[in-house]
């Protein structure tokens, strides 16, 4: 199995080293390059075409947002996850506006970081659970009437929806409920269809808006 290539961008060498060591334990992930500034990140990304870029927000020189904008304008197809200590709403919304694939906080558990990286590589928008309220506000569509669809969901689907709202992966949900990952995928597909939603992020936001979970 080939490894997904990852570029680490952070101006703190010790943090880069720690994250690199964590990622090195995964058979399907490989850190191919590191950068300590936005300028280095752009040069390295264009030269190595990583599958995913883990990008710090606050660095000397160009910020993470400025670097994100430059990378997208340069045409990079890499998945880009902001990895930061900032849970500031303006930072999250800016990152979303400019095409980020995820926004994770540095106090995330190591297992959560790896799970979210893999989810992003699979095409999911990922974010740390404490940011769900911000996501809900940013993705709301005007004053559109909410329709109560909770009654359409089975008890199992409701359980899984709450796990999704907490940012849990299918694997973690399966382990918690004592069912297979394949079964979780079927339930996720069914609940999305019943709610008229397309993605897990939309489902998480819907759960928060309808007060199924609180953060």
TrEMBL record:
InterPro entries: CheY-like_superfamily, Sig_transdc_resp-reg_C-effctor, Sig_transdc_resp-reg_receiver, Tscrpt_reg_LuxR_C, WalR-like. The keyword Thylakoid does not apply. The modification 4-aspartylphosphate is found at residue 56. It holds the Pfam family GerE. Keywords: DNA-binding, Phosphoprotein. The keyword Isomerase does not apply. Residues 146-211 form the HTH luxR-type domain. Coiled coil: none annotated. Residues 5-121 form the Response regulatory domain. This is Two-component system response regulator NarL. It comes from Aliikangiella maris.
